[in-house]
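Lecture notes, part 5. Sequence design as translation. It can be helpful to think of inverse folding as translation between two languages: the language of shapes and the language of residues. The source text, in structure tokens, appears below.
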């Protein structure tokens, strides 16, 4: 059955004004599962106007008592829990991620609402000392109408991180979900309005980047854009936002180093290094796709990683035994296959997993886990973000050498370090120019802690208190007390 999705603007569910629709595909089979509105500037404009009214007129949302705002978010967390299996299945079907990983994502979505629901009553200002003749009061206020433009790798989670923080801060919101995976994002307004959110506070408009995303960024009525996606589109958004001096938060890509020292717990380091680039089909902004291995254990580690890659079970994302699904789209599959072809020229293919054999999946966008070995840091497959299950392994000898190589990349999102030597771990962690460092682990992004990139991996932070700050303005009220 092909589902007919609709935009959510100021409460009701609507078509695009020109009636345009695009197809949403199950990447495991290539079959069309839904159609969604191909929204254009006039649709986006109406969503912005709704968010503007909900912010400005009577200050519906920013004027709602903090405890009521918080309660709505806490109720939303409960509704996500109640609907979690349905949402996880929808996410796996739409994005191609294995159902077990989709369940973890949805649990995080619920916690996002719980966490920021708690924050709604705890946003506070300051009273800096300015002498006896005056009183300075610093208050935090919502930045206004916020727009979220989000990608397909963690469709509902990427949206929920932005929406939960923004609503807790008192902003109203327009969300433009990814064109590849709009299904779960369109569940958000249902969940929040059941939880008591007034209409117009959260609006969702589906469509493509250039036609539905760009007008959001250009609009003088939008105060802030929070974007997650490619570096290239991040640059376009920043340029466009300059015209209206909008606030921007950018969560972009990465080519994160994963450093395995010879003194690491070998089994944990091998398993973690593989998971860091094979989980979610490698479609992770912080994927540990540049794997540096100390020469003393290089051959053994490579053999163990190759063994891991061959054991990955590609298959139907909805089957429990599947550990890797298809890539999200034909375009992404083609892009990753182009990088694999480049890798074949530049480096040595050390391992490649098996494609699924099930004939039902013959039209799916599967790419087996692939390991390239004996690479150097200057190769294309070591420099550019591939965003697929492709690992590039590079040997090293010295600590200083690996720090220099790890930092020699335009991105700076995350890094993982595997060692039993705590001093070495901390020293290297401090020397890396990245936003997140994992020591003896990989890919943890707890809702309570800040997340974001150094260098060309982005600007600003999401999650934690920092994620809330990005949706707040600071106002200083100065009261003269002197005669
Ligand atoms: P993209 O950056 O084009 O898309 C992300 C979002 O931006 C989507 O909602 C899209 O509709 C929107 N968008 C695209 N062009 C826009 C524009 N001109 N103005 C406003 N919004 C626009 O990413 P895409 O094409 O899906 O993937 C390409 C590559 O980007 C991937 O292979 C990967 O390397 C990287 N990527 C990184 C992600 C991350 O989490 N950092 C997530 C998705 C992709
Ligand atoms: Mg794109």
């Amino acid at each position: 059955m092909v589902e007919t999705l609709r935009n959510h603007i100021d409460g009701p569910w609507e078509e695009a004004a020109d009636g345009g629709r695009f197809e949403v595909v199950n990447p495991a089979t290539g079959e069309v599962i839904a159609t969604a509105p191909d929204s254009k500037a006039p649709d986006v404009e109406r969503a912005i106007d709704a968010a503007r009214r909900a912010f400005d007129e009577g200050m519906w949302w920013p004027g709602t008592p903090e405890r009521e705002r918080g309660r709505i978010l806490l109720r939303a967390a409960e509704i996500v829990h109640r609907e979690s299996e349905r949402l996880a299945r929808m996410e796996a079907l739409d994005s191609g991620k294995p159902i077990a990983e989709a369940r973890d994502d949805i649990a995080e979505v619920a916690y996002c609402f719980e966490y920021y629901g708690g924050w709604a009553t705890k946003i506070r200002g300051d009273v800096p000392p300015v002498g006896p003749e005056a009183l300075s009061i610093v208050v935090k206020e919502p930045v206004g109408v916020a727009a979220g433009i989000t990608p397909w790798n963690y469709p509902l989670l990427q949206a929920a991180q932005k929406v939960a923080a923004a609503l807790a801060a008192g902003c109203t919101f327009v969300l433009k979900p990814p064109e590849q995976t709009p299904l779960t994002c369109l569940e958000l307004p249902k969940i929040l309005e059941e939880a008591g959110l007034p209409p117009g506070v959260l609006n969702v408009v589906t469509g493509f980047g250039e036609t539905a995303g760009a007008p959001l960024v250009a609009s003088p009525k939008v105060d802030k854009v929070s974007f997650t996606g490619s570096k290239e589109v991040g640059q376009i958004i920043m340029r466009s936002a300059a015209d209206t001096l909008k606030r921007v938060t950018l969560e972009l890509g990465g080519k994160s180093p994963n450093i395995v020292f010879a003194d690491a717990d070998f089994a944990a380091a091998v398993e973690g290094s593989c998971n860091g680039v094979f989980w979610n089909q490698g479609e992770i902004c912080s994927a540990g796709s540049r794997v540096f291995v100390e020469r003393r254990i290089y051959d053994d580690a490579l053999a163990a990683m190759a063994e891991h890659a061959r054991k990955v079970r590609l298959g139907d994302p909805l089957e429990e035994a599947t550990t890797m699904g298809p890539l999200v789209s034909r375009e992404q599959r083609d892009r990753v296959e182009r990088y694999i072809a480049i890798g074949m020229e530049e480096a040595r293919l050390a391992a490649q997993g098996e494609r699924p054999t099930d004939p039902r999946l013959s039209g799916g966008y599967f790419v087996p886990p692939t390991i390239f070995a004996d690479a150097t840091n200057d190769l294309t497959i070591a420099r550019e973000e591939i965003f697929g299950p492709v690992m590039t392994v590079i040997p090293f000898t010295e600590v200083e050498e690996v720090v220099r190589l790890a930092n020699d990349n335009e991105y700076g999102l995350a890094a993982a370090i595997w060692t039993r030597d705590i001093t070495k771990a901390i020293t290297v962690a401090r020397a890396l120019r990245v936003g997140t460092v994992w020591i003896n682990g990989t890919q943890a992004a707890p809702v309570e802690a800040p997340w974001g990139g150094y260098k060309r991996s982005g600007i600003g932070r999401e999650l934690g208190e920092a994620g809330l700050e990005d949706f707040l303005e600071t106002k200083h009220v100065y009261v003269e007390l002197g005669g």
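The translated text above is only one of many valid answers, since several sequences can fold into similar shapes. The pocket of magnesium ion (ligand 2) is lined by residues 209, 233 (CB under 6 Å).
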